[in-house]
């Protein structure tokens, strides 16, 4: 069985810069890490992989994104592909899906393709289903368990507080939400070995992609603005004797209730 | 009533808050501290906070500095538990040469003279009892004390800040100093990003890795380099250890427990200021909150562990971060007067800010308020670095 995992290298903190013209994140402007929900998809892929199976990892991003690939290599991936081309920069979700679908076709076919349900920067959750559509394969989003048996995939899909048990034919694309399992960590030994592993660089030309169909040029969705989230929550330290603290807490709760009733209120 | 001496401190890390507190103990000091972020939030927050009674982080020549720091924090903990974030894990200092054996034994003697316990152990089985995952074949012996451990630099900074404010000092949080006011070669005050001017009799730069930039505002070339402190948090294969993982010190690296993780880092004294992988001039404002590390350091640590602590080579790599230490050529801080009159430094602590800040701040506060210097201030004066440059 051939398994593919697609991961995203995302910024780790709020210091990332935003392009004032395109409102897109400048992806080489700060440190990054593997997207949190992708970790759970990687773990699902690891558990799925049996002797004789191959696990390939793909990421589309800047040169620094090899760091995400190396983590997945340390966790058992066999081949790592960095989809890196100036033409890819500024891709919207469809552009990203086009590039991933082309790579998965070029280096596949794959029986199972896994991705995180959503990235923690864009958080659209669209890339997985779009990629499946382009590949002509069924997809299941928010899967917390996946078993392959007799050419079929048995998937537990999370929907609110419920779990749906689904079956689908292979090949299938499955997206995995944050918290779906308990991801294994790469060991020091495996990470050091993975850091020496070959990374396969892939360009638009390698995939036969016309540059104007992806990236900023091919984007069908336009980001009109990017705004900083204003954090209104404030921690309040309550000190004093037990009685004093209880009184202060009661006052805070009453104040909040009153403010909520009036349609306002501080976030404490 | 005599006029109070106005002192402006730039930087609210361990250096600035310790100095602010010590100055606030003088009735005739009017202290204002400027912190552009939060107290203890910069590179102080990324300090391992180890204050070991006899490791190699600070030469035994300055053992009293180490002891004063350690006991300052113990006192904080007695006053309010947790206020210095003490985790009493003890320390195991491994000797790989006869020179280190001598240094460790001298450190143990000094610790015992101050009433603490310490022993130099050559019985390998006993060493493995303390830290089972160690390979004792590579060491001659180890010094061990159960009395010390590591502290939390951010907690300490906030405790110093609270004490300083309780004594009447002023802390301006979110106040970014953008200009040092110099008139006729003398520092007269500072200006902040919002355009306000504050006049002082003395300005003290406590900005650590930012000092080179802060110094430039005063027309001063502060001779510090940034060395990379790349820390990795690993989960031991056993997940939960059934023994207390002590601070582990080797000449090239150290490790300590951090919750259920083990924190590992290359030691600051093993950094080479002329190696561009180790040291350079970087912008601390661009340090990420986590990650940002180089493969070089994890490779280095893996090979050290493969040889010395094989029990950690299959530990899971949980997270990492990059920080910058402010180091001088001799790896000692720069404290006191500079060529710019009334512009003082308390910077360049390297990896030793938590250890050294209490004693340095005690002495520097006395110097600022009473003009009385100390042997420590004389040895760590800016002028020694000018001599190195032939000036």
From TrEMBL, chain A:
Q: Matching Pfam families, A to Z?
A: ETF
**Out of the domains of life, which is the source?**
Bacteria
Q: Which residues form the Electron transfer flavoprotein alpha/beta-subunit N-terminal domain?
A: 22-211
**InterPro entries for the chain:** ETF_a/b_N (IPR014730), ETF_b (IPR012255), ETF_beta_N (IPR033948), Rossmann-like_a/b/a_fold (IPR014729)
One example of the protein's molecular function in GO is: electron transfer activity
Q: Which PANTHER family match?
A: ELECTRON TRANSFER FLAVOPROTEIN BETA-SUBUNIT, PROTEIN FIXA
Q: This protein is called what? A: Electron transfer flavoprotein small subunit
TrEMBL record, chain B:
UniProt xrefs under Gene3D superfamilies: D-Amino Acid Oxidase, subunit A, domain 2, FAD/NAD(P)-binding domain
Residue ranges of every copy of the FAD dependent oxidoreductase domain listed in the record: 7-366
Q: Would I find Oxidoreductase among this entry's keywords?
A: yes
Q: Which InterPro entries does the record associate with it?
A: FAD-dep_OxRdtase (IPR006076), FAD/NAD-bd_sf (IPR036188)
Give the GO molecular function terms.
oxidoreductase activity
Offer a single GO CC term for the protein: cytoplasm
The alphabetical list of record keywords is: Membrane, Oxidoreductase, Transmembrane, Transmembrane helix
Would I find Membrane among this entry's keywords? Answer: yes
Q: Which residues cross the membrane?
A: 7-26
Q: Which PANTHER family match?
A: FAD-DEPENDENT OXIDOREDUCTASE DOMAIN-CONTAINING PROTEIN 1, SARCOSINE DEHYDROGENASE-RELATED
Name of protein = FAD-binding oxidoreductase
Species for this entry: Candidatus Pseudoramibacter fermentans
Upper lineage ranks?
A: Bacteria, Bacillati, Bacillota, Clostridia, Eubacteriales
